[in-house]
Amino acid sequence: MSLNLIELEMQDGRLTNFGEFAGKTVLVVNVASKCGLTPQYEALEALYKKYADRGLVIVGVPSDTFKQEFKDDASIAEFCSLNYGVTFPLTKLAKVNGRNRHPLFKELVKAKDGMGLAGPVMWNFEKFLVSPNGKIQRFRPNMKPDDPAIVAAIEASLGN
């Protein structure tokens, strides 16, 4: 399935598809509000503010797959706004692994990480960088959003 055709239900109530981001560089991150990695929201927001005008979109996908997220979208949105000032788009709560995995993650998990490994999302805050031409780069949860490898990949994807 083409990534562009995959439907996304956004926190703001809009129903869209991944094609909305055509021509842009998109960093998709499965996020969670009650995780040891939750402070990564701060670096994600900083990346978004720094590169949004050059075509970077960050899409946070809240997930309770690892039992560390609120159970309702309103609580998630409030937490992200109040604690981290998140302005990048968030989808509604979605599963990132298992039989009922969101179609977006069915495609993203085919991408290999820097060690050549594909497969299920390992934990919260796994990052998938989708270039305008559809190339997917995968970064594991412990790699912070402002890690030089991620920043270099974003800059390369954005071009000059």
Task: Supply database-style keywords.
4-stranded mixed sheet, single chain, Glutaredoxin, alpha+beta, 4 helices, 6 strands, 160 residues, 26% helix, two-stranded antiparallel sheet
Summarize the model shown.
This protein is an alpha+beta fold and 160 residues long. It has 4 helices and 6 strands, in the order E-E-E-H-E-H-H-E-E-H.
Kindly describe this structure.
The structure is a single chain. With 160 residues, the protein is an alpha+beta fold. It has a single domain (24-158), classed as Glutaredoxin (3-Layer(aba) Sandwich). The chain contains four helices and six strands; from the N terminus they run βββαβααββα. It has helices at 40-51, 73-84, 103-108, 148-158; strands at residues 7-9, 15-17, 25-31, 56-62, 127-130, 136-139. The mean pLDDT is 96. It holds the Pfam family GSHPx. GO terms for molecular function: peroxidase activity.
Helix coverage percent: 25-40%
Ranges with pLDDT <50 over ≥5 residues?
none
Strand content: 15-25%
CATH architecture descriptor: 3-Layer(aba) Sandwich
Please report the distance between the alpha carbons of the first and last residues: 30 Å
**Spatial order of the strands in the main sheet?**
4-3-5-6
The pLDDT mean sits at: 96
Radius of gyration: 14 Å
H/E series: EEEHEHHEEH
Shape: globular
Reported for the largest beta sheet, the result is: 4 strands, mixed
CATH first level: which class? Alpha Beta
Protein name: Glutathione peroxidase
Family: Belongs to the glutathione peroxidase family.
Keywords: Oxidoreductase, Peroxidase
Pfam families: GSHPx
